[in-house]
From TrEMBL:
Obligatory cofactor(s): pyridoxal 5'-phosphate
EC numbers on record: 3.7.1.3
Keyword entries, A-Z: Hydrolase, Pyridine nucleotide biosynthesis, Pyridoxal phosphate
Stated role: Catalyzes the cleavage of L-kynurenine (L-Kyn) and L-3-hydroxykynurenine (L-3OHKyn) into anthranilic acid (AA) and 3-hydroxyanthranilic acid (3-OHAA), respectively.
Catalyzed chemical reaction(s): 3-hydroxy-L-kynurenine + H2O = 3-hydroxyanthranilate + L-alanine + H(+); L-kynurenine + H2O = anthranilate + L-alanine + H(+)
Name of encoding gene: kynU
Biochemical pathway: Amino-acid degradation; L-kynurenine degradation; L-alanine and anthranilate from L-kynurenine: step 1/1; Cofactor biosynthesis; NAD(+) biosynthesis; quinolinate from L-kynurenine: step 2/3
Source domain of life: Bacteria
Assembly and interaction partners: Homodimer.
SUPFAM superfamilies: PLP-dependent transferases
The organism of origin for this protein: Thermaurantimonas aggregans
GO molecular function: kynureninase activity; pyridoxal phosphate binding
Protein name: Kynureninase
Cellular component annotations (GO), alphabetically ordered: cytoplasm
């Protein structure tokens, strides 16, 4: 099999991103061996630098108390601003268009307050079939809240959950007269399909539809150019590919064309002009950037990990990240195809991984194995996840996965196939 003759040690040796792996804690088995961690799409690994930074914040709190707002080594008051330039790089945005705040589902709601403006004639919300449940609940409840309970319309998929380009564009076109908002995942969490966000954004906006993207599975996974693409707004969480830690502070993008406009918005004091915020004025005066959508003062302890994790993306650079990611994922996909042929095993890869239509993740069904293959991988120290009813998601991440990780995974799957055959 070709993957067996692939020189993984050489590939790891010449990997330009190889030094990043040692900047993360790799989970271990009870015996202390490193696991093969392919679940960075669900919870990214902990950068080793987080601990020291957190201790510094705890020390500043201990010694300074309230004075930490202005005198901590990293002032708490404008703490979120420390992340802006890194988020702008990752999102392909102007620094004024991004801000770290709250959590993903909360942000989707806040953004829909401003950007879902239904009228009697234009009220529909288009999303993908099988959108992430939290997104669907958010959309449905916004639709009901605005008095349009039937507004949410799902874009159909094929039997594997994939939406073809023609279906997508035909569907948007067919609904263009009465659709107010298109809000879908830029990368589908279940299938790993990457949508052509640029093309979809242009196509829908030309038809008078406001376009928002949920980028939970896209940020830190595929390069984004939200500003140039003309996206109206976007939101993401930071604990998946961004390695911000469980429940990390999320992020939003609001295109600059919407800054300083009269928009309905749920407001809080952190969205108020910084010049007059502490004069505690009676009337709200919004900051003229995406920061106007902030509600509260930043949660320092859950933002700190992002100070360690986000700079790594700019340091590594998108070109190297994407290139290694393509190689890892393609190697895994090719190995699975070879195993399928060699053992006549029924392995289907749902993810359209060719032609840039995937990021890190492959969603795979081992037909006839049920959960057995998942359990086998888990027992052998390969961390993947199981999505009801039969999908195993595996996501090699270019910052910390190695070529050896792919090799080990394929070997363990091969063993699993042989055991199952007996
Ligand atoms: C992970 C994920 C979420 C999770 O939402 P939280 O508000 O962070 O709990 C929501 N939507 C999508 C598409 C996701 O992938």
């Amino acid at each position: 099999m070709q993957w067996k003759s692939f020189d993984v040690h050489k590939a790891d040796e010449v990997d330009v991103l190889k030094d990043f792996r040692s900047k993360f804690y790799i989970p271990t088995t009870p015996k202390g061996n490193e696991k093969v961690y392919l679940t960075g799409n669900s919870l990214g690994l902990q950068p080793k630098a987080v601990r020291e930074l957190l201790i510094e914040e705890l020390d500043d709190w201990a010694t300074l108390g309230v004075d930490g707002h202005t005198h901590a080594r990293r002032q708490w008051m404008p703490y979120h601003e420390l992340l802006t330039e890194y988020l702008a790089y990752i999102a392909g945005a102007l620094p004024t268009e991004v801000v770290a705040m709250n959590t993903l589902t909360a942000n989707l709601h806040l953004l829909m307050v401003s950007f879902y403006r239904p009228t009697k004639w234009r009220y529909k919300i288009l999303c993908e079939t099988k959108a992430f449940p939290s997104d669907y609940y958010a959309l449905q409840s916004q639709a009901r809240f605005h008095g349009y309970p039937d507004a949410v319309v799902e874009i159909p998929t094929d039997s594997h959950g994939i939406i073809s380009e023609s279906t997508l564009f035909d569907f948007i076109d067919a609904h263009s007269d009465d659709t107010a908002l298109l809000l879908m995942g830029g990368v589908n969490y279940y299938t790993g399909q990457v949508f052509d966000m640029e093309k979809v954004t242009h196509f829908a906006r030309e038809r008078g539809i406001v376009v928002g993207w949920d980028l939970a599975h896209a940020v830190g996974n595929v390069p984004l150019k939200l500003h140039d693409w003309g996206v109206d707004f976007a939101a993401w969480c930071s604990y998946k590919y961004l390695n911000g830690g469980p429940g990390a502070v999320a992020g939003i993008f609001v295109h600059e064309r919407h800054h300083g406009k009269e928009l309905p918005r749920f407001e809080g004091w952190w969205g108020h002009s910084k010049a007059t915020r502490f004069q505690m004025p009676h009337d709200f005066e919004p900051i003229s950037t995406a920061e106007a959508w902030q509600l509260s003062n930043p949660p320092i302890l859950s933002m700190t990990p992002l100070l360690a994790s986000l700079p790594m993306f700019a340091e590594a650079g998108w070109e190297a990240l994407r290139s290694k990611s393509r190689t890892l994922t393609t190697l895994l996909a090719n190995g699975l195809c070879e195993l399928q042929d060699a053992y006549d095993a029924d392995i289907s890869i749902l993810t359209p991984y060719e032609n840039e239509k995937s990021g890190c993740q492959l969603s795979v069904i081992f037909q006839g194995y049920g959960r057995a293959m998942f359990d086998h991988l888990t027992q052998h120290g390969v961390v993947v996840d199981w999505r009801y009813p039969d999908v195993i998601r595996m996501a090699p991440v270019p910052l910390y996965n190695s070529f050896e990780d792919i090799f080990k995974t394929l070997e363990i799957i091969e063993k699993g196939i042989l055991i199952h055959k007996k």
